[in-house]
């Protein structure tokens, strides 16, 4: 079987809700990343055989196959097809898995895996709320209710359950959130994100250009203090999590170009990384966010590796209890985790986060001269993807 290689990575800097990316239609924003991947790799646009794009809120401006719409807004020819993926927060990580599986099978030689989410234009939970408003009920079916009687599926509840189950007190969550900002501040100031970020022009609400470029993740609180984080109101009375210890609402797009050996030969470039392992796992949908723990254990076993073999980890910071519980369960080195900060500081643009994290992971491995990186994230419904890459 052929190998799958990453030859180019790209992401926009994150935009806050109503912030510097709010003027962008999500299809146009995703097109900026697609064009950047083609430019950075030197690929013939017509040689791209598919665009697989993660997006969670596939309604409104992100409806009608956002992936295809992004292709039509890009410089790719009409001959390039596209499809949209929803595996909740892991949508574009799954897009990467699908793209890698395609080139490994030989059915394609060159595919783009990407993700996009405008949480300004399509607010979180919009797909859940619209049918309920129309009197059609919510997404929880009678069959689900019969299997899980009286259960309200909630990521917020799941985060609190993890904090309680792993003995994570509020002060530990606050400290972790502060450290996420500190790492992101250091990375931003050192230029660690420069090679991965695609500069895009800041647009007004009506889409007009301002002439100013967006190049710095807008969510980073450069003036963050532990005291300030600790003072933020708790999400639930008597709980441990607050908005300051949760991922930030974010607009953004990201992507990677994936090829096999034939694709490499056609491009004539050196790959950045090789896909070493891919897997996905379902887990308890009630606690919901715990899946990365057993999924990572299983992935390492299938890959014949130990946690100590991995040089850098990207574990999505949906809520601070998730990476902290992951560290505890895996007995992993915290110095290797989210070394450039995570979603608490940088934002979590839902469907775009998978290839966003991979973009940061591949670049961090290169900058630090490290070999193996592992990425995982919790996903709605109690799932987790795990991807292990080897820097080349």
From TrEMBL:
Residues 270-391 form the Thiolase C-terminal domain. InterPro entries: Thiolase (IPR002155), Thiolase-like (IPR016039), Thiolase_C (IPR020617), Thiolase_CS (IPR020613), Thiolase_N (IPR020616). The keyword ATP-binding does not apply. CDD domains: thiolase. Residues 5-261 form the Thiolase N-terminal domain. Pfam families: Thiolase_C (PF02803), Thiolase_N (PF00108). Coiled coil: none annotated. Keywords: Acyltransferase, Transferase. It comes from the Bacteria. Belongs to the thiolase-like superfamily. Thiolase family. This is Acetyl-CoA C-acetyltransferase. It comes from Variovorax humicola. The lineage of its organism: Bacteria, Pseudomonadati, Pseudomonadota, Betaproteobacteria, Burkholderiales.
């Amino acid at each position: 079987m052929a190998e799958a290689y990453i030859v180019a990575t790209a992401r926009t800097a994150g935009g806050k809700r109503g912030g510097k990316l709010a003027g962008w239609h999500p299809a146009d924003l995703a097109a900026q990343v697609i064009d950047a991947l083609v430019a950075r790799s030197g690929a013939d646009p017509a040689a791209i055989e598919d665009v697989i794009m993660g997006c969670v809120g596939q309604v409104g401006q992100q409806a009608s196959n956002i992936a295809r719409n992004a292709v039509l807004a890009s410089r790719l020819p009409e001959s390039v097809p596209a499809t949209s993926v929803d595996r909740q927060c892991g949508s574009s990580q799954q897009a990467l898995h699908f793209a890698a599986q395609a080139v490994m099978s030989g059915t394609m030689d060159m595919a783009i895996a990407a993700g996009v989410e405008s949480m300004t234009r399509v607010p979180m939970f919009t797909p859940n709320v619209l049918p309920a408003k129309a009197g059609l009920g919510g997404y929880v079916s009678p069959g689900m209710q019969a299997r899980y009687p009286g259960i309200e599926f909630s990521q917020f509840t799941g985060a609190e359950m993890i904090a309680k189950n792993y003995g994570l007190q509020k002060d530990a969550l606050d400290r972790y959130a502060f450290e996420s900002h500190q790492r992101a501040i250091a990375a931003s100031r050192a230029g660690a994100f420069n090679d991965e970020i695609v500069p895009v022009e800041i647009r007004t609400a009506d889409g007009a250009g301002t002439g100013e470029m967006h190049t710095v993740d807008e969510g980073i609180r450069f003036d963050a203090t532990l005291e300030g984080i600790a003072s933020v109101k708790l999400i639930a009375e008597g709980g441990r999590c607050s908005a300051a210890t949760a991922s930030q609402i974010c607009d953004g797009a990201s992507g990677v170009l994936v090829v096999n050996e034939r694709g490499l030969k056609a491009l004539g470039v050196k790959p950045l990384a090789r896909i070493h392992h891919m897997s996905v796992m379902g887990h308890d949908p009630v606690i919901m966010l715990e899946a990365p723990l057993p999924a990572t254990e299983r992935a390492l076993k299938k890959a014949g590796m130990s946690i100590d073999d991995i040089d850098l980890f990207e574990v999505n910071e949906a809520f601070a209890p998730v990476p902290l519980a992951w560290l505890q369960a895996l007995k992993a080195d915290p110095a290797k985790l989210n070394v450039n900060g995570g979603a608490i500081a940088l934002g979590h643009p839902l469907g775009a986060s998978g290839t966003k994290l991979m973009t940061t992971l591949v670049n961090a491995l290169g900058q630090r001269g490290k070999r193996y990186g592992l990425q995982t994230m919790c996903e709605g419904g109690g799932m987790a993807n795990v991807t292990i890459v080897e820097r080349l």
